[in-house]
Amino acid sequence: MTALLAATPAHLTVKIAYLSILPMLALLGGALVILVWSSLLRRPLETVWITSLTVLAATAALVLSLMQYFDVIHHGAHVAIDGAIVSDGFSAFVAVLVSAAVVVAALVGDGWLQQETIRGPEFHVLVLVSASGAMVMGAANDLIVVFLGLEILSIALYVLAAFNARRRQSGEAALKYFVLGGFSSAVFLYGIALVYGSTGTTNLPQIASYLAQNYVLHNGMLLAGLALLLVGFGFKAAAVPFHLWTPDVYQGSPSPVTGFMAAVAKVGAFAALLRVFVSSFGLLRADWQPAVWVIAVASLLLGASVALVQRDIKRMLAYSSINHAGFILLGLQAGSTKGVEGSLYYLFAYSFLALGSFAVISVVGGPGDGRHGLDRYRGLARRQPWLAGALALFLVAQAGIPPTTGFWAKLEVLQAAAGAHSYALAVIAMLSAVIAGFFYLRVVVLMYSPAGATGDGAATGTIVDTVEPARAVGDEGEPVGVAPGGEAGSGAVALLEADTGESAEPLVIPGTTGIALALCAGATVVLGIYPAWLTDFAHQATLLFHP
Amino acid sequence: MVPGALFHFSWLKIPANRIDFLTFVFSAAIVLVGAVNVVRQRNPVLAALSLVMTLFGVAVLFVEQQANFLAAVQIIVYAGAIVVLFLFVIMFLGVDREESISEEPLRGQRFWAYLLMALTFVGLLLAGLGSRFGSGVPSVAGTLNDNPAHPRSATPDVVVLGKSVFTTYLFAFEITSALLVIAVVGAVVLARRPGAGPLAEEDDDEVEVEVETAEPEEVST
After folding, report:
1. Among the four A195, A376, A472, B117, which has the fewest Cβ within 10 Å?
2. Is A155 at the interface with chain B, CB within 8 A?
3. pLDDT tens figures, A73-97
4. What ipTM score was computed for the predicted complex, to two decimals?
């Protein structure tokens, strides 16, 4: 073996800086260890062990990515493995975020798996592999590597969306996600091909240097490629008009998967989007900024306004995630270091809010994970004060109320937008935050209102509600009018009985989900009170942006 | 001496190698006949086999462009694997079912399809003729090996490809294995029966696992 290596010409061997890929190797390695271990045992491996191993692997990845970060601080950013991977503050930030998200997602998933009595290591393995894809996207230095990371991330997510085989919507969601996702991947790949055709390379710094050295006179193909790349990223990030899959998939997927999807898929897509557009195509800023402006405005307004009329909390949060995508695009639209910093901060804050919210939802959804009507949240605070408190915190933070991370995140991207003189965009964003605050707080009010003056069946979908003006506004579009009086009242009573019978069964918070909720809430509050830690981290990450 | 000398294509103004030209004509004909057959055949199996014919013709065209490796991959991957996959699906869905290719689920779809195809064809032709459409240079990337020290003829493309797979694209090559892991795990997840309750599923799992792992367990103890 050594003789063979010695005989190999030097230019054929690639020096591999392992530290730059160790975080993803930790996740992949953890997945393989779990798979092999569970297949060697006579009995199915206990979920507790699988979860512990997953958390261990993710913690190892977290530590390794922090080590990578300090290495970057001391020795500077560098490319590794012949320019396929870049190790800089940005990639370390993404790796830290993704591994922390995996810890939370594994804990929430554990609670859900036990509630559904699903055994086997597949859930955690898929979570780990999918997260490694997001990490690859954050560290990719070549469009082909970006594409592979995107595929690893999404194909595992398609399977995870279908994970609840007992629920028909789960399969439906997976199929929709798969078909549309496959289509958008093809679009993305075509974009890579066009960019390659017009610049002669897929390597991100080489694209940047080609564009810096050559003025592309006939840039139709280049711009078409850029547009297709934007479409591909926009799909994964759930930005309008590429958002059509979002509500159905978020609603149909198992709740912990939805949380993971909302957090990690967004992180991966936006990380690669920021790197590709700001660093490689930074010189074409004037060409892509208007397009991003339009997408951001559409996402902000549509996400916030359609979320107002949703009756299913998962659909509502799906539209809210579209709204958040618009906010993150604010940072990209600014196209500045400050913008990237704001987007990174926003991603960090939003990931934990999404994971936390969907963790609460998976508990409230109950066995079968099927009950997500907003009415199930009425009076939740009396039944489950901690659960309601946690959800209230996450929703308040998503609305952007201090002192939470959500507030600082919105502030950061708005500052970036103002710094880039896109005042109109900043104003629209603030407007959409006001609209969005309305539906977040509506759920909070619902949870803290007394259970049961009137009730309605989430299953029947009819809404009989005269108590809350807030709800009434949301229901204006409903052709079936609110009919106060005997008939509706008796119907309501009948439904109420069914409802109380249902909610009388105590909601059990699995211990692992409790830990996950505590982690998310802790991150939201502590980093909201001491925002400097995270802003410094994001700032350093952008300063150490490689090219 | 040259078989091509038997033919006189002077009206076509073919300057150089006639074998090249003949090969091109022949394989292009194969490609076209196969492609038309894919669309015209009523029997899906025959349509799939016509697709093999087209792909073989394209492989010959690749060889003619000295892209030997690409030709081999074309035959192994497309003609070998993908068409076999098509055939599997066709067999599963029933071979005896003949598609009626004359009915139109959408009104006028045939007309619009023809129009779209014609437009695409003309567009591609124009884009190809005006080769400066893209970026101002006819060929940006150059040949596969544009190192002037080693001209193209010196290194076969397999060597060049091998080099780039193990250098520039090493990471991409390796990380693809994660996709294979997902494929295996995903197939297991999607093929699993739902199971009505915890008990039924537990039983199921236990039996399967026991059968599969009896051997390694003995080895380890």
Report:
1. B117
2. yes
3. 888 888 888 888 998 889 999 999 9
4. 0.81
Distance from the A463 Cα atom to the nearest Cα atom in chain B, whole angstroms: 32
DSSP label of A81: T
Query: Taking CA atoms, what residue in B is nearest to A165?
Result: B194
Tell whether A268 lies on the interface with B, counting CB pairs under 8 A. no
Query: Residue A87 carries which DSSP code?
Result: E
Q: Is A310 on the interface with B (CB under 8 A)?
A: no
More confident residue, B6 or A161: A161
Return the HEC string of A191-240. HHHHHHHHHCCCEHHHHHHHHHHCCCCCCHHHHHHHHHHHHHHHHHHCCC
User: pTM of this prediction?
Assistant: 0.80
A477 or B7, greater pLDDT: B7
CA atoms within 13 A on the CB side of A254: 30
CA of B105: how far to CAs of A432, B37, B100, in Å? 43, 22, 11
Contacts of B194 in chain A (CB under 8 A): 165-166
Q: Looking at CA atoms only, how far is residue B173 from chain A in angstroms?
A: 9
CATH for B1-100+107-134? 1.20.120.1200
How many CA atoms lie within 13 Å of B220's alpha carbon, on the beta-carbon side? 10
Contacts of A130 in chain B (CB under 8 A): 182
Q: Taking the domains of chain B in order of start, what are their residue ranges?
A: 1-100+107-134, 169-221
pLDDT tens digits, one per residue of A380-408: 888 888 899 999 999 999 998 888 899 99
Measured in angstroms, the CA of A17 and the nearest CA of chain B are apart by 12
Chain B contact for A11 (CB, 8 A cutoff): yes
pLDDT per residue as tens digits for the range A110-130? 999 888 888 888 999 999 999
**Average pLDDT value for residue range B159-167:** 82
- Tell me the β-bridge partners of A142: A203
